[in-house]
Amino acid sequence: MSTGNAFLVLSAFLASAVEMVEALTIVLAAGVARGWRSALTGLGAATLALAVVVAALGPALTAIPLNALRLVVGGLLLVFGLQWLRKAILRASGYKALHDEHATFAHELAEARGAARVERAGLDWYGFTLAFKGVLLEGLEVVFIVLTFGSAQGSISLAAAGAAGALVLVAAVGVAVRAPLARVPENTLKFAVGVMLTTFGIFWATEGAGAHWPGADASILGVLGFVVLSSFLLVRLLRRERRTQLRTVEMRA
Amino acid sequence: MSRLAAFGRFWWDFVIGDDWLVAVLVAVAIGATAALAHSGVTAWWLLPLAVLLVLWLSLRRAIRSV
């Protein structure tokens, strides 16, 4: 497997795992508070809707010329990846609270328990829509990543295999523990996904713009190293700045 | 109309996110890379440096609003 393809599978796996852990938390809250029938029907309906999006957009993307596709996809991934990376750096440096799956679960559970019961088509409508929306919104990010990564690298099936691996793993662990997967190092995973998206974004947007990397596909490793190093330097700088800020506030108090 | 606005807002939040400046600067950097490449100048170095600058600017903006 080439460097590009190995990164493709790994990136699709990591990004999908992060989104699926979040979707699982919402489905669990819907199931525990409103009943499993409605939650699982919502999960199934959202999965079907996502499959339709993939079936409609997948073949259309492969028909676009590769350079134009890499330019657009690279640009989109870069904007998307920088969002993830900015949030991850802010979390790691202490400027933003760490994502807590237990807290999200408790919040969703309280809201679901407080909502009025309305039955439609024999289902608890709140439970159904909560699970449907949660899986659809988190799933759309997975679909976006799988389709863009896969089409730009020339193999949607490899990206889909990475996502499917994450689905099997998260679903199996979710069924086994029946609790939010709070022990998954989600903040670290999000950092890794931000780095991957930004790396691929830089690589493909540059190629799509008509420039050529020295060393072709192998230069992805160089870009990855640059993004990782820059991110860690920024975390260190901001962490030091944050500590100084907090110390100043403490001294004034 | 409100559904259309909600649809538009969803895609804006999904792709552009919290800081629109990132999208604008990334588009400018890609345009500059294309301009350099098409005039025969080596241009692969431009985007990584631009991304570092954009990330730094965006972080400063986020910290100012904390």
Describe the protein in words.
The complex is a heterodimer of chains A (253) and B (66). Chain A is mainly alpha-helical and 253 residues long. Chain A is built from eight helices and two strands. Chain A has helices spanning 3-34, 36-62, 66-92, 101-114, 125-153, 156-177, 186-208, 219-252; strands spanning 119-120, 123-124. In chain A, strands 1-2 form a two-stranded antiparallel sheet. In chain A, a hairpin with a 2-residue loop joins strand 1 (119-120) and strand 2. Chain A starts with a helix and ends with a helix. Chain B has helices spanning 2-16, 20-38, 46-64. Helix content of chain B is 80%, strand content 0%. Chain B has one domain (17-64). In chain B, helix 2 (20-38) runs antiparallel to helix 3. The chains are: A mainly alpha (253), B mainly alpha (66). The A-B interface holds A 71, 74-76, 78-80, 82-83, 85-86, 89-90, 95-96, 140-141, 144, 198, 201-202, 205-206, 208-214, 219, 223, 226-227, 230, 234, 238 and B 14-19, 22-23, 26-27, 30-31, 33-34, 36-38, 42-44, 46-48, 51-52, 54-56, 58-59, 62-63, 66.
SSE blueprint and pairings:
The complex is a heterodimer of chains A (253) and B (66).
Chain A lengths: L2 H32 L1 H27 L3 H27 L8 H14 L4 E2 L2 E2 H29 L2 H22 L8 H23 L10 H34 L1
Antiparallel strand pairs in A: 1-2
Helix pairs in contact in A: 1-2, 1-4, 1-5, 1-6, 1-7, 2-5, 3-5, 3-7, 3-8, 5-6, 7-8
Chain B lengths: L1 H15 L3 H19 L7 H19 L2
Helix pairs in contact in B: 2-3
